[in-house]
Amino acid sequence: MSRLVTMTVGVVAAIVAALSYSAFSVAADDAKSAGTAKDDAYAAKVWSYMAANGLIGEGRIRSFPFVGSRPHGSIQEFIATEAVIDGQRGRLLIKHNYGAEEALSPKSVYAAGPDENNEPLAIMFQREEGYDPDNNNWFWAEYNPDGSVFNYQGANLSGRAPLCIGCHTPLGGKDREILNGSAK
To answer: Per-residue confidence of the chain (184 residues) as pLDDT tens digits?
Structure first.
């Protein structure tokens, strides 16, 4: 039980940090974009790369799901690879997220089709040096199942997305990567 409380407190702290980052840091730096047409266009290029390389869609590469936590799905699949987007080679992290139905388990998600119980798919792509040095040059995006950028409370989650950075900064360390879970 104490592990659950600790995890819940950590998630709440991350959300508070995300809201603080969202309200102050991004507003103070107009050069850092998030959710703009340019960001969405770049997100479309990442989506195209994933589709062309079997990382999304029917017949995609699968990994064994694990129990995750919010703000992503209660069950998640994670794939890490390298990609080339617009001539830039970088690390691509893909998190397939699945809904919060109590009956879901990693085994039931793996046995079902990969398109069942979907929640927004989240990615991080490490762009060229200088893109966003404060955040290890990560480009962030969340997608709807049709490949369009997910809109959360009026903001498209693409580019230097404050909601993503706000959670990954306190929890993800210098590299901003977070991977936790259990195969329960």
So the answer is: 444 433 444 444 444 444 444 433 433 343 467 999 999 999 999 999 999 999 998 888 888 787 877 777 778 888 899 999 999 999 999 998 887 666 777 777 767 766 666 778 899 899 999 999 988 898 999 999 899 999 988 999 999 888 777 776 666 556 666 655 444 4
Distance (Å) of CA 163 to CA 1, 15, 61, 106: 28, 8, 27, 26
- The answer to whether 126 and 136 have CB atoms below 8 angstroms apart is yes
pTM of the model: 0.74
Distance CA 109, CA 116 (A): 8
Question: Is the separation of the CB atoms in 46 and 158 below 8 Å?
Answer: no
User: What does the alpha-carbon distance between residue 114 and residue 108 come to, in Å, rounded to a whole number?
Assistant: 11
DSSP string, 51-119: HHTTSSSTT------EE--TTS-SEEEEEEEEEEETTEEEEEEEEEEE---TT--HHHHHHS-TTTTEE
Are 82 and 89 in contact, with CB atoms under 8 Å apart?
A: yes
Output DSSP code: residue 157. -
